[in-house]
Amino acid sequence: MKKFNYVCLILAILFSLSSFKGKDEVIHLDGNWHFEMDRNNEGVTAKWYNKNLSDNIKLPGSMAEFLKGDEITLKTKWTGSIYDSSFYFIPRLEKYRQPGNIHIPFWLTPAKHYVGAAWYQKEVNIPAKWKGKRIILHLERTHIETRVWVNDKEVGLQNSLVAPHIYDLTPFLKEGKQRISIRIDNSIKEINVGPDSHSITDHTQGNWNGIIGKIALEAIAPVYIDDVQIYPDVKNRKARVKITINNSTSSIFSGKIVLSAKSFNSSKSDKTQEIKSKIVVAKSDTKTIELDLPFGKGMLIWDEFDPALYHLDVNLNAKGIKSNKKVQFGMREFKINGNQFLINGNPVFLRGTLHNCEFPLTGYPATTVEAWEKIYRKIKSYGLNHVRFHSWCPPEAAFIAADKVGLYLQPEGPSWPNHGPKIGLGQPVDKFLYDETLRMAKEYGNYASFTMLSAGNEPAGNQVKYLNDFVDFWKARDSRRVYTGMSVGGSWPVVPKAEYQSRGGVRGLEWKKMPETETDFSAGIAPFKVPFVAHEIGQYCVFPNFEEIQKYTGVYKAKNFEMFRQDLADHNMSNQSKDFLNASGKLQVLCYKGEIEKMLRTPGYAGFQALGLQDFPGQGTALVGVLDAFFQEKGYVTAKEYSRFCNETVPLAKISKFVYTNTETFKAEILLFHSGKTPLKNAVISWTIQNEKGIALASGSFDAKTFENGNGLFVGNLAFKLDEIKEATKLNLEVKVNNTAFINDWNFWVYPDKKVEASPSIYYTTVLDEKAKEVLKNGGKVFLNASGKVVKGKEVEMHFLPVFWNTSWFKMRPPHVTGMLIQDKSSAFADFPTSFHSDLQWWEIQNRAQVMNLEDFPVDFRPIIQPIDTWFMNRRLALVFEAQVGKGKIIVSSADLSPDVTNKPAAKQLFLSLQNYMNSDQFNPKNQLTLDVIQDIFVSPSKEQFKTYTKDSPDELKPNSNQNKVN
To answer: How confident is the model at residue 954, as a pLDDT?
Structure first.
């Protein structure tokens, strides 16, 4: 038995050695590192690279992830602008400013925070067989500046935000135990990309300090393949391959290059022949050669529909030297023709969202392909095909995953050079953006998904000249993608040389007269002869989902959500939070539908970049997504529902209005948006109008037709007389492409056209006069139309469209309301079909109507129609409420509901429904009120009103307001 055990031990040792032998070209440095914070920036002078650091940390990871750093206080030196300093002054929020109960509302709160230098140190054992090899240190992503020492010798400094930091340690390492020290500094120094840039800001990923992704020492041949860049030529079935060989030896190198490509991820397979070439590289020199790699008739092309990929194998061989690279790429061409984008010659419309580096569990971006695939598949399930990375560039895994899933990416230079730095003035950021985008092209340029490039976001400075030069530089250098200057809003100057425009100004929903789906953006895009991609569309807010708080189990906590939740409770509405979420969410989806459809029906419109499909956790907390910051659904819309109006093919309808009387005819012009891989051949498009019971009232179809790719393609017209509708009815028009999954629909409402008069059994009044008081005293019924008379709540501005971005970032710029919660099950709406949320029939009632602030009402008081306030204020508001007053009963409306209203069929019908309710046995208000509390709505202003405290932008009173400014 002993002999047997001894043999097993020997075999185990041999197996271990053989396993190590196969891996000894790479030493992974994951795991424990010695660590120490350098608060006083003394480590270099004190030669910390020669001492044992006093603490420990694990890598990959960040300081905050392992609770290294400082507690959050009101004096924390954040990286990011604070536009609304009122949090520091509002009396009711004082409890959230106390030590131990700090709740920052501007963004998510990290477990710890630290800005400055920190040291990471590890001892490694260099094997003897590495002698004569080139040894590099690979740090996949660090934040921000690294300096590296081997033992007591400094290797160098790097500061890229977009690419790995790679150090050549060959001259510094020798066999045996060696100490590697890395100093990482995440403070903003001479190179300032802007404190709000998503590459560094606390608004999104956070200004973390650490190293993530691959951390390793690699031993490679001294003559090696330094770079491979692949330039597909789809039309001629070949790829031009540019290979750079580096000879770090003191001898001339003579060898052979062999390359071939093979598909790997599609049902069809394809493989090229091997291409061989001799190469000679002078000693201590670099040489680049270009080779054509031909493809056969089975060549597979890459696009969003069929993302077929290849691996290119490049092998460099000579006596005693072997070097190889495997490169993922796709055969595709992303070009521009006039105002259209083309993928492999096929017109494509970009349906995009922004990725702002939202990673709430870690505070830093994912570096695994699996994590990015999960995000991208969710994005694609919502009908999108494009992602813009706002002022940052993701790690390599993001490109690998996008290639596999089939998405068109626009990474950006890591800069928002506006709040502090500016471009074109000779500041360090000017050269840095060239350096960074060059690194991006080298590291990620072969990925098929990397189709677009922007220098950053919304700049200041001498921007037109700088960005014209930037575009010219890249157009001449690399034809694999298309280039714009920076992604900008509508007020920014046009960069004439940009190959496409990513800008605002031609977006949004007007709906100033009434909601419609007839207008488009043709006039707005007419001045642009290149593709126009709408910058940051949407930004429609919803109320916070407080159930999301429990998801924050990592580095970041949703202290902002906790504060909003408690504030809602302090205003006696905590039991309504879920209803507020769902009601505001339904309106949000309606708005996204309206805006996206408007672009899809605009001929020549090239695409959009929504802000966003998911919430933005910073800038005051911008809850603009139908998904949360974890890319998970909130419960009020599914991917299947959303993709009805956002997809490669979408039926559309031009409808002049959504509220009718039964003396009218409903008319619609049916259109189609199509951005498919092939034309829709012999497509039959049909339509149905049905009521809420699902009973079809009319239907039809149009002749079969072939539709090429395009926006707003004419299908046909339909008309439906409404004279058979005898009572208030909600109808639905559904249009579908037969024998496909493409379907879309629109609700509209029909009301009887009859005169509405004030009921003699109800006292209708526009003021709470003596007669109203007498009626109530004697047990009668009063309808008070308080439109235009409200004082308590006068400061709250309600539009039909919800809060834009958030009221904190824009210092309470209106609108202040994000939809309405409607007690739709109440008999008050028996003759006014409605759901629990704002829908299009409410526009003429809701838009620009006054709201009433019920701050002095009983804590359990709930109005029939309740506007949902911005979550920074959480005022209990009402548009219509009912109550018992003395022996009588009253309904009060701050919307203009009266027997005299004209040209507003919905308002007239709602007034009728409320009157019928008041005359029914169902009119039995739950709450008792005094006349004084009602009267006070028309006398006294709100006790609590928003005050900005400062007018600068960003606020001059925020802590460390000048920390990132450049003079």
So the answer is: 56
307: its two tokens = 């993302």
CA geometry: angle at 840 spanning 838 and 842, to 5°? Answer: 55
Q: Determine the 3-state secondary structure of 166 from DSSP.
A: strand
Give the pTM.
0.94
What would the two tokens of residue 576 be?
């309504």
Backbone dihedral angles phi then psi of residue 935, each to the nearest 5 degrees:
-60, -35
Q: How far apart are CA 316 and CA 731, in angstroms?
A: 69
Burial class (CB in 10 A: 0-12, 13-18, 19+), 238: middle
DSSP code at position 152: T
Give burial (CB, 10 Å; 0-12/13-18/19+) of 46.
exposed
Three-class secondary structure of residue 25 per DSSP? coil
Sign of CA dihedral 66, 69, 74, 78: negative
d(CA 375, CA 218): 31
Count of residues in the chain: 967
Q: How many angstroms separate the CA atoms of 567 and 614, rounded?
A: 24
For residue 548 the two structure tokens come to: 């999301």
- pLDDT of 4 higher than 70: no
CA distance 105 to 560: 4
DSSP state of 99: T
Lowest mean pLDDT among 224-233, 423-432, 509-518: 509-518
Between helices 369-381 and 396-405, what is the axis angle to 10°? 40
pLDDT at 10 over 90: no
Please report the pLDDT score of residue 740 as a whole number: 97
Number of neighbouring beta carbons within 10 Å of residue 111? 19
Q: How far is CA 123 from CA 31, 139, 215, 217, 531, in A?
A: 12, 16, 14, 12, 54
Residue 482, classed as helix, strand or coil, is strand
Contact (Cβ atoms closer than 8 angstroms) between residue 170 and residue 257: no
pLDDT band at 955 (very low <50, low <70, confident <90, very high): low
Q: For the residues 5-10, what does the mean pLDDT come to? A: 40
pLDDT of residue 953: 59
> In this predicted structure, what is the pLDDT of residue 965?
41
Looking from the CA of 747 toward its CB, the CA atoms found within 13 Å total 15
User: CB neighbours of 78 closer than 8 A, spacing ≥ 6?
Assistant: 106, 113, 202, 959, 960
The kind and range of the H/E element at 590 are helix 577-600
Average pLDDT over residues 559-567: 97
Q: Quote the CA–CA distance of 145 and 886 in Å, as a whole number.
A: 72
Q: Could you tell me which residues come within 8 angstroms of residue 454 by beta carbon, excluding any fewer than 6 positions away?
A: 388, 410, 412, 413, 483, 484, 485, 486, 487, 502
Angle value at C-alpha 280, between 278 and 286, nearest 5 degrees: 125
State pLDDT tens for residues 610-646: 999 999 999 999 999 999 999 999 999 999 999 999 9
**Collapsing DSSP states into helix, strand and coil, what is residue 811?**
coil
Determine the Cα–Cα distance for residues 418 and 960; give it in Å rounded to an integer.
Answer: 18
**Residue 218 predicted with pLDDT over 70:** yes
Q: What amino acid is encoded at 224 in this protein?
A: Y
Q: Copy the structure tokens of residue 563.
A: 């504060």
3-state SS string over 286-341? Answer: EEEEEEEEECCCCCCCECCCCECCEEEEEEEEECCEEEEEEEEECCCCEEEECCEE
Residue 823 corresponds to which tokens in the numbers above?
Answer: 């007690």
What is the separation of C-alpha 917 from the centre of its chain, rounded to a whole number of angstroms? 45
Token digits of residue 236:
């001629």
Residue type, 117: A
Beta pairing partners, 263 = 310
Cβ atoms within 10 Å of 528's Cβ, excluding its own = 17
For 531, the 3-state DSSP assignment is coil
Closest C-alpha among 959, 943, 961, 750 to residue 92: 943
Q: How far apart are CA 731 and CA 469, in angstroms?
A: 55
Distances (CA, A) of 655 to 120, 418, 648, 652: 63, 41, 22, 10
DSSP structural state of residue 828 = G
